[in-house]
Amino acid sequence: MPKRNAFAQVGYARQLLGTKDTGPRQIANVSELRSQIQFNPGAQARLFTDFLPFNSVERRSPQSVIWYRGGIDSGKSWAGSAFACSRSLQDPESRGLISANSYGQLKTSTLVVLAEFCEKYGVPLWPRGDTPEETARMIANREMCKIGNAVCFAMSAEKFAGRTQSSQEVGRGTKFRWMWLDEYAYAPEGTLETLIGRLGRGEGCVEPTALITSSINKNNPYNWAYRLFDDPDRPDSYKKVYLSIAGSSLENLHIEEGYLERLKGAYTEELYRIEVMAEYVALTKGRIFKYFSRDRHCIAAEPCPDHPLHFSYDFNHSPACAIAGQFIDGELWLLREWHLTDSNTFESSAATVNWLKAVGTRFPVSIHGDASGNQKTSNSEVTNWDIVFDAFNCEDFLTIQEFGESNPGVQNSINSCNTALRRNQIAIHPSCKELLADLGVLRFDPHGNIDKRDPKRSHLGDCFRYLVQDLLPLEIEHPKKSHSSQQMPTGVC
């Protein structure tokens, strides 16, 4: 038989799946299924009463993408299974998608819970093995299953946001009426955007709905999922599409006795709040800027006309980054950030100068940043710093060069930043979301260097390091020796 693309022959899939034995049909309809289910009180019950009524193909929320944000073993995947089965039984013509953040998660967890749910409540599921684990492996290998008479695709997020161009294109043209997306807070950024473009298309009458069942990403709590669903400052356009419902592990009536007590003893307080209570907390363990706290350092302020402005630049193609702030009475107030994708130094310097023209200043402007921007290349005699200073000069702004011939030591600048953060000498405007993300998640790699594997991260953190090192350098006063009284700035181990 010729190899078929999993998306290409849906009609063939229906014909093939329709010829297989789906087991005894113990459930006649979705109403019978609903009568057997007891929802956990709290978020799970609210999900199926206030937002996604179990016995309806419609939803009660105006938002089409709902995140059931739960703790460990709070019943998230069970709720996802209930959602998938309810929609499949009510309208077999509405094609669905069951997905997870990784293939391993899909095969060993998400689909296992689906198989256990169907086995417990008598929901016909094909293919079907001797155990839930075997059923999950069979579905994962086929990349599709049948719930009742409804065809559902089963694919990981990697299929829609992989590293190769072909993997990123695999979902193009597919049509789904509903989606269950498990642990998607750990999925690559951009995956959900791709899938939303596939939602609400094709045959069937299920109102377009995507249900995400996921814990907060403990490695990056304030990631894209936070910005879409829970950031209080997100735009109204996000609020019309994305809805978040939080439920802790404490709400699960069926959780193993003593399990949560063991977690509380094993976890740090921060990790317990994230993993069990489904609360947003930035983990400090392993973090580079370990003394940064959104609660303490995120403060809104406007430029003060009585003090000069400082700009700090980091030179990249995507993103091109800069920050602007003011140094007032020993405190650094960061007011604005620029995080420009697919950009360059011409555009980033123009953007900063345009902002400066809008806010105005009567002082010379201090320029900080990456000293390596003075290097010429074989392709150009014009350096990045030439471009920046030219942008200011063209608008008749006076500038002061604050950076030296070389960048400060990375560890020295990190120590200066952590000291300033610990002393509460830093205030960051809430609109500086990418900088806040950098300070909250940047970690050391196994070799002790700044982990730069994520191309979006670290660049505004670098701008921050350069600026703090220039304005608030950590200086350690050593005990005086008989032959010298010099005080030397140094790093702190």
Which bin fits the share of residues in helices? 25-40%
DSSP summary: helix tally: 18
Average pLDDT number: 87
CATH superfamily of the largest domain: P-loop containing nucleotide triphosphate hydrolases
Q: Gyration radius, to the nearest Å? A: 27 Å
Structural class: alpha/beta
Tell me about the biggest sheet?
Answer: 8 strands, mixed
Question: Which fold name is given in CATH as the topology of the largest domain?
Answer: Rossmann fold
How many domains, as an integer? Answer: 2
Give a summary of the structure in a few sentences.
By secondary structure, the protein is of the alpha/beta class. It is 35% helix and 15% strand.
What do you see in this structure?
The chain folds into two domains: 10-275, Rossmann fold, CATH 3.40.50; 295-471, Nucleotidyltransferase, domain 5. It has 493 residues and is of the alpha/beta class. It has helices at residues 10-18, 30-36, 43-51, 76-90, 103-121, 132-142, 165-169, 191-196, 224-229, 236-239, 259-266, 269-275, 294-297, 345-359, 384-394, 410-422, 433-441, 459-471; strands at residues 65-70, 96-100, 125-126, 144-147, 150-156, 178-182, 209-214, 242-247, 310-314, 320-328, 331-340, 365-369, 399-401, 426-428. It has 18 helices and 14 strands. Residues 1-25 and 477-493 have low confidence and may be disordered.
